[in-house]
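Sequence, structure tokens reproduced for absentees:
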Amino acid sequence: MTEINNVKKTNIKNSKILFTIISIFLGLAVGALVLIFSGYNPIEAYSALLNGIFKSPRNIGWALVYSTPIMLTGLGVCFAFKTGLFNMGAEGQFIVGTIVGYLVGYLLPLPPILHPIVAILIAIIVGAAYGALAGFIKAKFGIHEVISTIMLNWVAFYFQNFLAQTFKQENSFASYEILESSKITLFKDSYKEFGPFFSKFFKAPIHLGLILAIIAVIIAWYILNKTVLGYQLKAVGLNREASEYGGIDSSKKIIQSMAISGAICALAGVTHILGYTYSISVLSAMDNYGFDGLAVSLLASNNPIGVIFSGLFFGSLKYAGSNLQRVLGVPTELINIIIGTIILFTSIPLAFRIIRAKSQRKKQYKKSLLEAKENEKNSVDAKAISKNLSDFSDNFDKGEKLIKDENKESEQNK
């Protein structure tokens, strides 16, 4: 039985991977059609896209820089999904991470090694609290996390703009840079000492966030699959009432799940500012790192390990989109069309599962009605048979009595 279950799980995983690959190819095919209708050669466009990623080690490095934050926000969204929660607040939690990273990095002078550690730890704690707030609102008042997290996104967004205005440089939309001691960019000044490949690779601001993202993926996978906490979180996500009946405090687990998700998204923000941007800017719109993370999680089928590969894929596409515009003049919005189409095709199996589940529920409901009617009919028939037997028994007794009376009367006459 165990072997059969393992085979089934393997088949399911393989089918998900296969469908993801098919979704990617379909997305690229739709992108090719859009290019043709717009008057561009899709072969040239996709060649420019690949050159934008693999043309030089420096391009590969930049693709990794673009991938790192959405890898982490994707992991945060994935963790919430695995526990039955829809964290639409990854963007706001990312912004909270950038805010804390900037404030600690700019206002708090500390030794070089200690400074980024303190900034990252504080950002993780604040991000966890920000995520836990949405979890508390759901657990305490029953307000869906989608509503509360979207509202909290805007709170974080406008607070960042307020801080950016407060610390803004003159004649600029950006704030002053963080202190040098808080930066986590790898080999920022010594990359020229490496060989021909790595000297170009580290021209891009590769930072410790990439390493922390991989560590976070491993930790999240371990928590979800190898710990009691992970089992309890997933149990609450699958069936809150049943988990409460089993002795699990569902409200507490909802808050814990959103706290962990928020901490991971805040880690994305703090590493992004300490390793790449070094400052915050006055924004007219959100940067969409959190919403890109949502796409990364969906493409990975909410698998923490898969988030690494889907994050690299989306990050590379986003970076190479600028090369597409520079070489051929193709609008970068094409990349968003391709990504949106891939996500659309990826979500098709989920839609089919929902439709199939509803169809099965209808069939089960109809079957239950037929069984109830059949039972009712059988019950009526049983009552009729019982009544007939009772009438037959009464008539038999009456007949028997008449026969006895007649025999008795005839004996008396004799």
User: Anything to note?
Assistant: The chain is about 80% helix and 0% strand. The radius of gyration is 33 Å. The mean pLDDT is 83. Residues 85 and 141 are 15 Å apart (CA to CA).
